[in-house]
Automatic annotation (TrEMBL):
PANTHER family: MANNITOL DEHYDROGENASE 2-RELATED, MANNITOL DEHYDROGENASE DSF1-RELATED. It is an enzyme of class 1 (oxidoreductase). This is Mannitol-1-phosphate 5-dehydrogenase. Residues 19-240 form the Mannitol dehydrogenase N-terminal domain.
Length: 433
């Protein structure tokens, strides 16, 4: 029988003192921020899920350890990541409040998905509600400053989080609101490391590679990037030792990442399943999707205002990353929450193209593919009920566009182009079936 992964079995240091807290413990945090933090032995993480109770239990049984399988083209490499000192379910409210009140804690990172930044009238249990409760407790406990570091794929994610917290705190006392303005730093980030959900067979691969039983392995690619802009009033781990870069302005990096990588992912995730593809590597080998990806990158390049040489290199490397068979990235996983993703990844370029009186094929393919997805597949989206019903109604293309942006729905040529492309995708799928 294989020995369970623990600090003793893996001969790993004891847990580092908790100085960072994370909300949204999932695959990506463990492939990215935790790996950067691991290089600084003075910083341990207390990581909280949103709802999941199984993962924190498995990690607690492994002293916070897990194996990270890094898969390129050759044999996967596994390393044991030891940055998580404690893992908790989101329901562990008392510990969450205690951690956020502690002056030893200097920062909170978040991976709560794009949908997690929405503010509801009733904030009870929402990600923003939990962060606000934590900040309230910190203010009462002496008010040590703190840095909030969102790591989700949103443009201006630090500003988005600041606005969400301001909105959520609107009914709070003025002292607390002023404290937020003066003592809470909102850091903008661009994050990158393709990390699909682990599959059942990854547990067996972890055992083969490490000689230990790991019930919570993570699979990721060799590439990793982290760019940050903002202040850390109580300090931070030496993330730069693992390659993180601190810059003054993230706008250009953000456009490059969200439009080129995430935009192409959304294109493949929306149009790929309609053409019989299940994973990113499969989709970029499909002739029509490969052509659409290049067409998307061409128009994105036109509007990105970035040096042409850098973009050419970025595109070349993206194609390699997408084509890798090491990491099989499921298109349905990427399609989840598309109503929150399309506006950041696709619409800025589509609007710019329509303003120039052009009808760009790739964004039209995204919208048509998304419409088919909403009609025909299991939909995981915070607006699923509303969107599925619109997609199955008469005049679906216009109504779906309207759900994203009413001005797009007023563009009759665009609506017709999306309707025609739905048919085009169906005919192409029938021809190649
Ligand atoms: N996986 C990647 O390749 C990758 C790369 C860059 C950025 N990201 C960012 O990280 C996020 C999480 O990705 P992951 O791979 O860890 O996914 P995951 O499914 O493994 O974990 C998602 C985490 O977000 C929480 N969550 C889900 N819905 C939420 C909501 N409405 N409010 C608050 N929390 C919620 C989940 O409970 C879980 O803890 C992505 O949505 C994306 O913004 C992921
Ligand atoms: O993680 P999401 O759901 O925001 O988006 C799905 C993918 O596009 C995304 O995870 C990429 O793989 C990632 O952004 C690469 O760094």
């Amino acid at each position: 029988m294989t020995t369970r992964l623990t600090r003793a079995a893996a001969h790993v240091r004891p847990p580092a003192p908790v100085r960072a807290v994370h909300l949204g413990l999932g695959a990506f945090h463990r492939a990215h921020q935790a790996v950067y933090t691991m290089a600084d032995p003075d910083w341990g993480i207390a990581a909280y899920t949103f709802r999941n109770t199984e993962l924190p239990r498995a990690l607690a049984e492994q002293d916070g350890l897990y194996s990270l399988q890094v898969r390129g083209e050759g044999e996967p490499q596994a390393e044991i990541v030891d940055a998580i000192s404690r893992a908790h379910p989101g329901s562990d409210t008392d510990q969450w409040l205690a951690d956020l009140a502690s002056p030893d804690v200097a920062l909170l990172t978040l991976t709560i998905t794009e949908a997690g930044y929405r503010v509801f009238d009733d904030q009870d249990g929402t990600a923003i509600g939990r962060v606000l409760a934590g900040l309230r407790g910190r203010h009462r406990a002496g008010g040590a400053p703190i840095a909030l570091v969102p790591c989700d794929n949103l443009p201006g994610n630090g500003g988005v989080l600041r606005e969400a917290i301001r909105t959520a705190a609107a009914g709070e006392g003025s002292r607390f609101r002023s404290w937020i303005e003066d003592h809470v730093s909102f850091v903008d980030t661009v994050v990158d490391r393709i990390t699909p959900a682990a599959a059942e067979q990854d547990v067996a691969t972890a055992a083969r590679l490490t000689g230990l039983e790991d019930r919570a392995p993570v699979v990721t690619e060799p590439f990793s990037e982290w760019l940050l802009a903002g202040d850390f009033p109580l300090g931070r781990p030496a993330w730069e030792n693992s390659g993180a870069r601190f810059v003054d302005d993230l706008a250009a990096y953000e456009r490059r990442k969200l439009w080129f990588l995430n935009g192409a992912h959304t294109l493949l995730a929306c149009a790929g399943p309609a053409l019989g593809c299940a994973t990113v590597d499969e989709a970029v080998r499909h002739p029509m999707l490969a052509r659409l990806t290049e067409a998307w990158w061409d128009i994105a390049s036109y509007h990105a205002s970035l040096p042409a040489e850098d973009l050419a290199d970025y595109r070349r490397r993206l194609l390699q990353r997408f084509s890798s068979r090491g990491v099989r990235h499921n298109l349905l996983q990427i399609a989840a929450g598309s109503s929150q993703k399309i506006p950041a990844r696709i619409l800025p370029v589509l609007r710019a193209e329509r303003a120039a009186q052009r009808m760009p094929e790739a964004p039209v393919a995204v919208l048509a593919g998304w419409l088919i997805h909403l009609r025909d597949r299991p939909v995981s989206d915070p607006r699923a009920d509303e969107l599925v019903s619109l997609a199955r109604s008469a005049d679906a293309a216009r109504r779906i566009l309207s759900a994203l942006d009413v001005t797009l729905a007023d563009d009759g040529e665009l609506v017709s182009a999306v309707e025609d492309y739905v048919e085009h995708l169906r005919l192409t799928a029938d021809r190649t079936a």
